[in-house]
Amino acid sequence: MIMEFLIENTGNSEQRTLIYREDEFSFDMEPWVHEIDFDIAINTLTLTVVDSKVIQLSGFCGLNKNMQANYDVPQNKKGELKILHSENYSGGIGCYGLNKDTLPVYVNAQTGWICIGEPQKQGNAVEFINNCVAVIDDNRKFVSLWLKPQKFPEL
Q: What residues have CB less than 8 Å from 19, skipping those under 6 apart?
């Protein structure tokens, strides 16, 4: 089953701070919510879903100079990133992989944005958590995840 997403432009995003921990090569959020229905894995990151809504993310994401590119975060609106048919993703497994292959990672050191996925593909973009933007195409499929941590890491 292919996961489908829905964007609801509510004018508000989750009020959390995205942190990149250079010593761990990982993303984290503050404050952390311990409630979870299931996780979605994108590469080695996990997006936490509660009540069909993606509310936080964390996980390993090593960044280096070879990933540098000049892609810019797409125009977006604040809102919610929801999983359609989330009832199909329960049953104790806990984590569902979104992609079979590893998605490319691009880093724009000038703007501070990191893109996981396809930065050139078009779609609808939503800032679902402060400085976390997801792009979903017209077929409700995941295109890319854009992240701007509070402090950009040294490359």
A: 27, 28, 29, 30, 149, 150, 151
